[in-house]
Specification:
The protein is of the alpha/beta class. It is built from 11 helices and 8 strands.
């Protein structure tokens, strides 16, 4: 683990593999720490000949917190989003994309294969759209375009993500984290109870900062429809999506692939909104094959 100044903020990151190998930058999702990228996936990509960097987005994990900045309330944000209005927010997804690019610059990496999951997929899309010279290829996982006409998330998935635990007691936070994982996770690939408990508890002990999640959600809603920006992406693009995703339905992945010229999509039956251990190898194969073509 290490920290570095990038885009004028402090970023926590981890760097794996041979520095001389092609770089993969892993960008994680809403309120999610870098540790939600399974280390087994990191290792699998390193074994396939890549240098792999995963990092905490701003306002989460051990990266810099935007203390003192208030995001608009969720209901106001949703209403403005539906009306096509742009709310004022503490920072944008483009700012978060610039963080990832800044991390590459700080590490003296000219360009990388950008791989993002969920909100991280949105950020990865914007890195490809706004920083094409830094993008060797794009892989957008369980993400979407911001198209308001797409099917909404299941109500239970939205509820569990937007409801704060009643206290910051460790056991309460762990129980909440397990509930989130079970609600949005892959129905065909449930994790073992021991693995799930260990992952959630480690995450709680590493960092708990709900204010960051609220500001990141504001950034997502304020970004609006990205389809016009996605149409300008020139990087080779792969879309990966679960067919049983309750948070970002499959239609979001299909719309992403349709919006980016030349993009191809690969879907997994029974995969929800997570990266199950059983799919690490096939997902690593897809990413490595895609990155290896560029």
């Amino acid at each position: 683990m290490a920290q570095i100044t990038a885009n004028d903020i402090t970023i926590e990151y981890e760097d794996y593999g041979d520095p001389g190998d092609p770089a993969i930058l892993l960008v994680m999702g809403l309120g999610a720490q870098l540790t939600l990228w399974p280390i087994e996936l990191v290792d699998a990509l390193v074994e396939r000949g890549f240098r792999v960097i995963r990092y905490d987005n701003r306002d989460i994990g051990l990266s810099q917190k935007m203390d003192g900045e208030e995001a608009p309330g969720i209901f106001k944000l949703v209403l403005m989003n539906r009306l096509g209005l742009k709310p004022r927010v503490p920072y944008t997804l483009s700012d978060m994309a610039a963080d990832g690019v800044g991390l590459l610059e700080a590490l003296n990496i000219d360009n990388a294969h950008i791989v993002g999951a969920s909100m991280g997929g949105m950020i990865a899309q914007l890195i490809a759209a706004e920083h094409p010279k830094r993008t060797a290829s794009l892989t957008s996982i369980m993400s979407t375009t911001g198209n308001r006409k797409l099917p909404a998330a299941q109500k239970e998935a939205i509820k569990v993500l937007t409801t704060r635990p009643p206290s910051a007691d460790e056991e309460v936070l762990v129980a909440h984290g397990i509930r989130v994982a079970r609600t949005i996770g892959s129905p065909a690939y449930p994790p073992s109870e021991d693995r799930l408990l260990s992952r959630v508890r480690e995450g709680v002990r590493r960092s708990y900062y709900p204010d960051g999640l609220a500001r990141q959600l504001a950034a997502i809603l304020a970004d609006g429809d990205r389809r016009k920006r996605l149409a300008a992406i020139s990087a080779p693009t792969l879309v990966i999506h679960g067919e049983a995703d309750p948070l970002v339905p499959l239609a979001g992945g299909l719309d992403t692939a349709e919006s980016i010229p030349g993009a191809r999509i690969s879907t997994f039956p029974g995969m929800g909104h997570d990266l199950p251990l059983a799919l690490v190898e096939p997902i690593a194969d897809l990413i490595a094959e895609h990155a290896g073509k560029t």
